[in-house]
Amino acid sequence: MSALAALLAPSTGAGRAQEVVQRISEAVHLGLLSDGERLPAEVDLAAQFGVAPMTVREALAELREQGLVETKRGRNGGSFVRHPKSPPIEPQRQRLAAMTVSELRDIVDEHQAVAGRSARLAAERASAVNVRRLFALTEQLRTADGLGDRIRADCRFHIELAVAAQSTRLTRLEASLQAEVSGLLWLPLGPEIDLDAMVEEHHAIATAVVSENGEEARRLTEEHVAGNLRRLTALHLLLTEEGAQL
Questions:
Q1: pLDDT tens, 14-35?
Q2: Rounded Cα distance, 136 and 58, in Å
Q3: Residue pair 145/85 in contact by the 8 Å Cβ criterion
Q4: Can you give the residue ranges of the HTH gntR-type domain (predicted)?
Q5: pTM of this prediction?
Q6: Number of Cβ atoms within 10 Å of the Cβ of 47
Q7: Backbone torsions φ then ψ of 180, nearest 5 degrees
Q8: 111 vs 117: CA distance, rounded Å
Q9: Do 33 and 138 have their domain in common?
Q10: CB 93 within 8 A of CB 46
Q11: pLDDT tens digit sequence for 68-114
């Protein structure tokens, strides 16, 4: 199962348009749906999510309001994906401020376990296509223009590691974790992320995978993810201090 298929799996809450909105918006922000890509017809989307066509229609209307989907009429019409230049900032600020350091640590612990295992298995199982994708996504991160493109390139790299591990469960978990963490990690607060350092780390992980060095790939990936906790904790404390001053 691909990361996109994992996110668009049947809904656990039939009849809930908001869940459909969340799942499609996550796929857009993670770059699993390409800019300009045509979504399946409403009846087909409804079947994918396991909901009624009317539920999908309501979800698409909200996605249009958010600027994530554009609907065109006519023979070549349909609903098309529109990548935002930046994800919504304020909801992510509020979510991070409401979390505790313990909750952040738990998320990063889980991400280290999933990403580290994915990297190790990728070194054993990755195809030539997977490896090319890892290096291409590293280059996309280096040349990304704007916050939205950077988030998508970063997320896709980690998801591709799980895809390269040839594990449906790890891919599903990684996609879910990226949807949960990426918007927080890239919040434009405090010191900027050292993009050059991140690109170097991605390149080193990809090199370990292509070298079939599973232990090195795991170690590098776990160290890379550990840096997320330091940034998330620093941003959380910053928001806490801002809140105390109000």
A1: 448 888 888 888 788 777 888 8
A2: 36
A3: no
A4: 14-84
A5: 0.81
A6: 14
A7: -80, -35
A8: 10
A9: no
A10: no
A11: 899 888 778 889 998 877 777 888 899 999 999 999 999 999 999 99
Contacts of 173 (CB under 8 A, 6+ apart): 114, 162
Domain stop point among 30, 60, 81:
81
- Which two three-digit tokens encode residue 173? 């978990």
Residue 80 DSSP label: E
Helix (H, G, I), strand (E, B) or coil at 85: coil
**Cα 172 from chain centroid?**
11
CA distances (Å), origin 56, targets 29, 32, 66: 19, 19, 15
Non-local CB neighbours of 104 within 8 Å, separated by 6+ positions? 229, 232, 233, 236
Indicate the burial class of 91 (C-beta count within 10 angstroms; 0-12, 13-18, 19 or more). exposed
Domain that holds residue 72: 3-81
Instruction: Give the separation between CA 4 and CA 15, rounded to whole angstroms.
Output: 21
- Tell me: do 70 and 30 sit in the same domain: yes
**Residue in this structure with the two tokens 């390139």, named with its chain if needed:** 153
Burial of residue 36, with CB atoms counted within 10 A of its CB: 0-12 exposed, 13-18 middle, 19 or more buried? exposed
CA distance 213 to 194: 26
Last residue of one domain, picked from the residues 24, 46, 81: 81
